[in-house]
Amino acid sequence: MKRHSVRLFGTRAALLITLLAAFTSGLFAQSVQMKANIPFDFYIGGKLLPAGAYSVTPLASQNGIQISNSSGMIAMLITTPVANSNPTRSRFVFHRYGTVYFLSELQWEGYFAGHALPESKLEIEARHSSAPETAVLSATR
Predict the structure, then answer these.
(1) Is 124 left (phi over 0), alpha (psi -120 to 50) or beta?
(2) How far is residue 12's CA from residue 1's CA, in Å, rounded to a whole number?
(3) 3-class DSSP state for residue 128?
(4) If you average pLDDT over residues 5-28, what whole number do you get?
(5) pLDDT, tens digit, for every residue of 24-73?
(6) Is the pLDDT of residue 97 over 70?
(7) Structural domain includes residue 6
(8) Please, are residues 90 and 138 in contact by the beta-carbon 8 Å criterion?
């Protein structure tokens, strides 16, 4: 009886893992790059990146992104899912404090979920001084 229970549990667990993988792969199945020319320097985490052409690709792990510029500068980040309020266009979303920009979200056209980047200590400090404004840049795929 115990062996039958263990086998039944194993079968159910495998089925659950398969269903979860199928569901989440559809949720973040963005296999396309998103590109934008960013006209200002901006922060990702605590790192300042120069203005320029950037491309972003979701990682296969579905909870992260890879961002690179034309100079080959690459960053990989862990992100969290966030609702895409306007799935009709791809975009980079920034928080702006005065003249300082922080990348906060990435949204892909045609998907109802995007990627939110964690706030850095630097952005948290900036938020204590003033409320952020949102800056949105359209992107191409």
Answers:
(1) alpha
(2) 17
(3) helix
(4) 43
(5) 444 444 458 899 999 999 999 889 999 999 999 988 876 899 999 988 87
(6) yes
(7) no
(8) yes
Average pLDDT score over residue span 84-104? 95
Residues 65-77: b if buried by 16+ CB within 10 A, e if exposed:
bebbbeeeeebeb
Is residue 15 in a domain? no
Number of domains comprising the chain: 1
| Cα distance between residue 44 and residue 132, in whole Å | 16
Q: Is the pTM of this model over 0.90?
A: no
Question: Can you give the residue range of the structural domain that contains 71?
Answer: 30-138
Residue type, 113: A
Please tell me the distance from the alpha carbon of residue 81 to that of residue 62, in angstroms, as a whole number. Answer: 9
**CA dist., res. 59 & res. 50, Å (int):** 23
Give a yes or no: residue 2 inside a domain. no
Strand partners, 97: 100
**Residue 10 domain-assigned?**
no
Share above pLDDT 70 across residues of the chain, in percent, rounded to a whole number: 77
**Total count of residues recorded for the chain:** 141
